[in-house]
Amino acid sequence: MASSERPEALIRTAISRAYYAAFLEARERVRRIYPQDFVKLQRPADVHALVRDLLKRKGQFSLSDKLFSLFLERGHADYDLTPPLDDLVRAEKATKLSQDIFARLQKVQFFT
């Protein structure tokens, strides 16, 4: 099946990848200064909230909020199949938000 025949799948994948690109960069940066917090995790899924909390601890409230917005969008794209997700603009917005998060992370000093 050609990609033009399944735009919904491509949109959902783009949103999910946009989130994980930003999340993984944020995770690695906060892990450098708060490694002990990652050891304490009870469930691996808790790492998403932990990263946002550690960004807040670092004073990056806006960055944490942006990551949370992208997290919610990713959840919708990955798990909510109704209504159909066929709006390419949502994928473009998610990609731009991810790029913004990534650029802001580059400006934050993540060392102790």
Secondary structure elements and pairings:
Blueprint: H1 7-33, H2 35-39, H3 47-57, H4 61-79, H5 88-107
Helix pairs in contact: 1-3, 1-4, 1-5, 3-4, 4-5
Low-confidence runs of at least 5 consecutive residues: none
Strand content: under 5%
Which structural class is indicated by helix and strand composition?
mainly alpha
- Give the domain tally: 1
Shape: globular
Helicity, as a percent range? over 70%
Distance between the termini: 51 Å
Task: Describe the main β-sheet briefly.
Answer: none
Q: Measured on Cα atoms, how large is the radius of gyration?
A: 15 Å
Task: State the helix count.
Answer: 5
> What is the H-and-E element order?
HHHHH
- Count the beta strands: 0
Mean pLDDT: 91
Give your account of this protein's structure.
This protein has helices at 7-33, 35-39, 47-57, 61-79, 88-107. With 112 residues, it is mainly α. It has one domain (3-107). It starts with 6 loop residues before the first helix and ends in a 5-residue tail after the last helix. The model has no long low-confidence stretch (mean pLDDT 91).
Features:
single chain; 112 residues; mainly alpha; 0% strand
Concise summary:
With 112 residues, this protein is mostly helical.
